[in-house]
Design brief:
Two copies of one chain form a homodimer. The first copy, chain A, is α/β, with parallel strands linked by helices. In chain A, 26% of the residues lie in helices and 27% in strands. Chain A is built from 16 helices and 26 strands. Chain A has an eight-stranded mixed β-sheet with strand order 17-16-19-18-21-20-22-23, with helices on both faces. Chain A has a seven-stranded mixed β-sheet with strand order 3-2-1-4-13-14-15. In chain A, strand 24 and strand 25 form a beta hairpin. The longest helix of chain A has 17 residues. The N and C termini of chain A lie far apart (73 Å). At the A-B interface, strand 3 and helix 6 of A face strand 3 and helix 6 of B.
């Protein structure tokens, strides 16, 4: 039997601390009051119930290794990226990788994010796949339902079928949602379909409306403002903190869920309330009855802090085992297995030519539609210009070429579209990590650089290529073109370089790499690009850029 | 689409009311703020997550009919009484009866309550039965684990096996507990085994200790004191109100869960907090994700109140249907099916003789052990007297005869034991409704009356018989000897008469009928009687009343 003696131990039911001694093996045996506690605070292991491992471009294995020192002992992963690439067989392989934390999973609900009419990907999840996945006890929720368009439509569709089959198979499990900007009667209908959480960027009024309508809120970094914190204080127990997406360089630099918690504290939430929303509240939401609290019978997952306000992590215990000790320089260790060609040879695309990326348009006057990426968020807008074409192609000094090149073996024709607020210097970036279909997203100053960057990603079988007159750089993402097999610290440095390249070439966004990648996500407002062209997200239709209505 | 317009609608996340209009069919479609609300309050249907239908001596069908007007729209029933009588086949039959509310079930964990070494009953639940029952989706928890003795013992036993199999089969489901008076390291070990609720009678310190140790508390009527209410106020969300056992006459006179809620309000808890602990808190505890709140997508289960402090119920809606309207005199209707001899001929016992109940003991001086029933609760104590026997039998003016006559076809010898604070006038009462084994419990002034009462129950195949020099009365409990097939209002009046008989004959207890019945419950402190004799509850052993150590 192990013990942590005379600490300040977190009491979930009181949202406070009391001096105590904890006896434990893999589970807590007892928590006995002490006369006085020492300077260290012991809190339950952090639980991140809405996140995507592939956003950190890594395997569950490496993810667990690098996030345990940040206090994250349990995650609920929605691996819809790997499922978009490989289908549910590939999800099963990903779930089979060794982890050091406890990793639970969601049934990915959005594979593809929209439909095969709007985009091409490598897998499909519909009723039969949901029924099959729901039998797996590691799966404990339906992953974020994003397609509000489907849910609010009349008649049958895939999103409704998925919810129905999941509800029948697992009536007790939560259904996670993604509904940015939705409100009023549309939000009512979205929630009435059974989707009762949201993890998108919030405002005080969206927080109040959602919680009053019965939603559980999952608050990520970008939702943390002083005003939102004040709104959240009205509803203890009805929200948790989550990470959603954490880029490799951010993870190595600032941390994972702990980074979110620290920001919440800085913005004025009591550390005791922040810890509640990272431990007990998410455990209750996900019915993880054996954790989230330091009490008899619960897992001995502990984070030992030497300061509460800075959330400075000295030690982490997972299932009673000390896995991280800052001062003793103890860190977790694990090794990856080797992978076969099914995993490593996933970019099934013949090489492209510069000609594929030329914006062709008949001579004459046109109303040209542009994907216009406004800094600082991931939002885009549809910007229309009247232009006169004389050489059969559209080009202008401030116009970049944007395309998502299909890479699942169909050799579909490339559909380049014009973009504003893209690159301001010569060059191109291409990434096979491009949410959620993970085709080969390219943004280029001209067609020649576009083809160079795309062909580099095809030849290297997945990754992020940047090319410009000075040369080329490449970050390999060998696993399905979306996940690195490198250690996270090296990957983090490489992604930092990609970020610098984007900034140097005039691309402006808060999170340059992620904002670029989600230019391909046709459920994120307002206009995005798929392998089939520009998608109008609100209507779920393709737009011809050549002639606006 | 139906609507409830301009009401004061309960907002769970705020534990308060706001004027609103509700649109609904079987589920809520929307809750829209109004300029002003009328005088009526609309709250979610009440959810009673710890209760035994058989305590009200009735079927699930009749129970649902009579409790909907009290606002109870969902129950989680632990039917260990009917399972003790008929085994899991009989539980399945009981669960198959038509109901008007939503009735979920627990896996009965204590069949028998102790072991076949200490008592005889009609069914057994062990690992294989748990595995089979856990496949049924109407079953959502493991019913109250009562056998602290087993849990705290070393090595393998049935209670531990049941928990292990349930945990394997349904890892996400709660495990309910019953641990009166347990505290300190024994309570730690009890909780560490996975049992994390308690519904027994509490004190402020037992409330604080249990919640701090991670238990969810289920607060029943007898736990409601002003001091306990003050302690509970420290822990919103960590307790719910429950009924456990409600006698037929109490149900018809004062109500069901609403009776508990009214008492909590009278003792100083805000009605808004009381409602929370009867709706959202129990829904969360039991993972009933589709109810407990008035919000889009949740079941349209409403209780309409015209006064908050008195919790005066004007209407009840179940799944959108108005099932009770006080002013329109609308009440629910349902009819029972007919039952076969397997259900109706369940008392398999040959007739007994007065001689079976004589307290035989060798002549000489003895230390005689008595089951001593102290008013006002259900607690007993072991009282020892030094007596001198001259005629081979033990008798004294203040000593009653107590016996639990085996009735499952084994024709086991009767083991009468002496009792203090039993009857003070000539007569006997015998009941086949005697928790949890439901043998024929008899308490008598002498052996002749004992045999008369027991034989009446045998001849009539189950019920409660009272006999005295003035004559006899009988309440039939035709279904397994524990459940009446009469309408509840008639049954309530009959039970009131039994209560009056017990009081008239000098038996003193707060709840005479229940206190008498649990004289046979060998997990309830301190000494109880089974068909095998006196059971010492703390040690789980049989005591020979004839010679105390």
């Amino acid at each position: 039997m192990k013990r942590l003696e005379h600490c300040q131990v977190y009491q979930s039911a009181r949202r406070g601390f009391a001096p105590a001694t904890i006896l434990f093996d893999d589970r807590v045996q007892s928590v006995s009051p002490s006369e006085k506690g020492g300077g260290r605070y012991v809190v339950p292991g952090f639980i991140d119930i809405h996140m995507h491992i592939e956003s950190s471009m890594t395997t569950p294995t490496e993810f667990s290794r690098v996030t345990l020192p940040h206090g994250t002992t349990t995650i609920v992963a929605d691996c819809h990226e790997v499922t978009n690439v490989f289908g549910i067989e590939g999800l099963g392989q990903f779930m089979g990788l060794e982890v050091l934390n406890d990793t639970f999973y969601a049934v990915p609900s959005s594979v593809p994010a929209t439909s095969s009419l709007l985009e091409t990907c490598g897998g499909t999840i519909d009723g039969p796949e949901v029924r099959r996945l729901a039998k797996d006890r590691r799966i404990i929720c339906l992953g974020e339902v994003m397609n509000a368009h489907d849910l609010l439509a009349d008649g049958d569709n895939r999103t409704k079928r998925i919810i129905q089959v999941f509800r029948e198979s697992r009536p007790e499990c939560p259904i996670e949602g993604h509904c940015p900007r939705l409100s009023g009667s549309d939000l009512d209908r979205f929630i009435a379909s059974g989707v009762d959480s949201d993890h998108c960027q919030q405002t005080p009024s969206s927080i109040r409306e959602r919680v009053e309508k019965g939603m559980f809120l999952e608050i990520q970094y970008k939702s943390l403002t002083r005003e939102n914190i004040d709104a959240l204080k009205e509803f203890p127990g009805f929200f948790s903190f989550v990470t959603d997406d954490v880029m490799p360089d951010t993870l190595m630099g600032e941390g994972q869920l702990d980074r979110v918690l620290r920001k919440a504290i800085r913005l004025g939430m009591r550390p005791e309330d922040v810890i509640y929303a990272a431990t007990w509240a998410p455990a209750v939401r996900m019915h993880l009855v054996d954790r989230g609290m330091i009490a008899p019978g619960k897992l001995a997952d502990f984070v030992v802090l030497d300061d509460l306000d800075s959330l400075s992590i000295a030690q982490v215990y997972k299932r009673g085992k000390l896995v991280y000790d800052r001062d003793a320089e103890l860190v977790p260790h694990v090794t990856l297995p080797s992978f076969g060609s099914g995993i490593l040879q996933s970019v099934r695309r013949d090489l492209v030519r510069a000609d594929d990326f030329v914006l062709r348009i008949p001579n004459g006057s046109h109303q040209v539609v542009h994907v216009d990426h406004e800094a600082p968020g991931t939002l885009t807008r549809k910007t229309i210009r009247t232009v006169t074409v004389t050489d059969g192609t559209y080009h202008a000094p401030d116009v970049s070429i944007l395309a998502s090149v299909e890479r699942y073996g169909h050799q579909a024709p490339v559909v380049p579209v014009p973009m504003l607020h893209g690159l301001s210097k010569p060059g191109a970036i291409c990434s096979s990590w491009s949410h959620d279909s993970h085709n080969l997203l390219v943004m280029a100053s001209d067609a020649k650089f576009a083809a160079l960057a795309v062909n580099l990603v095809i030849k290297r079988q997945g990754g992020i290529a940047t090319v410009d007159p000075k040369g080329e750089q490449f970050v390999p993402l060998a696993y399905g073109g979306i996940v690195s097999l490198e250690p996270m610290d090296r990957l983090g440095k490489e992604i930092l370089q990609v970020r610098a390249w984007l900034r140097d070439h005039g691309y402006q966004a808060d999170d340059e790499v992620m904002s670029f990648a989600v230019l391909a996500l046709p459920v994120s407002p307002v206009v995005k690009v798929s392998d089939k062209g520009i998608v109008d997200v609100a209507t779920g239709t393709l737009i011809d850029w050549r002639d606006a209505e």
